[in-house]
Amino acid sequence: MTIKDKIQKDKLPKHIAIIMDGNGRWAAKQGNQRIFGHEHGVESVRSTVEGATEIGIQYLTLYAFSTENWSRPHDEVNALMGLLVQAINDETEKLKEQNVRLTMIGDFASLPKDVQTKLNWSINELSKCTGLTLVLALSYSSKWEITEAIKKIAQDVKDDKLQIDNIDKDILDNYLATVGIPDPELLIRTSGENRISNFLLWQIAYSEFYFTPVLWPDFRKENLYEAICDYQNRERRFGKTSQQLVS
Ligand code: FPP
Fold first, then answer.
1. What is the 39 CA–ligand 1 centroid distance (Å)?
2. Distance 141 CA to ligand 1 centre (A)
3. Which of 13, 17, 86, 106 is in Cβ range 3.0-4.6 Å of 61 for a Cys bridge?
4. CA torsion sign, 146 to 148 to 151 to 156?
């Protein structure tokens, strides 16, 4: 029995979010530059997307570049942006064959023009796909997202489009970058770091966390399946008691 066979099809998470971490350490372990790790990370993205589509996951969000990542050395930022353009260019046809729709969350305007153009092209190419929705978090951070949401809410209150008394958690959902996307039931972080790093802070209120020591360039669909099996063995109580869940 393979790990894939152990997955219970009726208990699949709709949305899995992944903090892809460990590219730099993976490269350093082999005496290579950090970008070498990022390049190999693309193969992990390919395998993970393939794995998610094979079992029918609806949403997969990948934390590919945070707002804080802009503070990395210029060479690394430039190389990462170049890699993104290349990966999007090379993978779009295969994504279409897999019926994958693409979207992004993050500060689109802060991305280099060539990344914006390639992203828009790919999002458009894949817009009719109805399978997995692949969400790339690019120039994203939760604090950026929540700040933007508050600004828009304040503007709508000022313009009389929204009443303060009507603001509740569902209204706030509508002002976030993830509008229309269900909250992730499962959040995975690779590389043995036990942090959230400014990722989907609002949306992971009740997510199950799965931390694995596997470095991102070594991560494959089988690792995704292990995380899903682990998730399926957990009791999600949402503040209730175990007895309440049984009855
Ligand atoms: C974190 O590892 C990884 C990133 C900041 C970049 C992730 C990018 C990719 C996997 C490549 C392209 C992505 C797509 C979606 C095509 P790190 O550099 O922080 O590693 P370290 O903690 O070992 O230094």
1. 9
2. 15
3. 17
4. negative
- The residue annotated as part of the active site, out of 23, 32, 69, 166, is 69
From 18, 19, 21, 195, give the residue whose CB has the most ligand 1 atoms within 8 Å, as the site to mutate: 21
pTM: 0.97
Read off the tokens for 161. 């489009």
Catalytic residue selected from 5, 10, 21, 174: 21
Q: Cα dihedral sign for 110, 116, 122, 128?
A: positive
The two structure tokens encoding residue 153: 């809410």
| Structural domains in the chain plus CATH codes | 11-141+183-246 (3.40.1180.10)
**Ligand 1 atom nearest to CA at 215:** 23
Confidence check: pLDDT of 76 > 90: yes
The phi and psi torsions of 30 (rounded to 5 degrees) equal -105, 10
148-182 pLDDT, tens digit per residue, is 999 999 999 999 999 999 999 999 999 999 999 99
Residue 40 token pair: 């190999």
Residue 114 is a catalytic residue: no
Nearest to 136 by CA among 20, 13, 43, 12: 20
pLDDT in tens, 120-159: 999 999 999 999 999 999 999 999 999 999 999 999 999 9
Distance CA 82, CA 203 (A): 30
Which position has the token pair 């152990």?
6
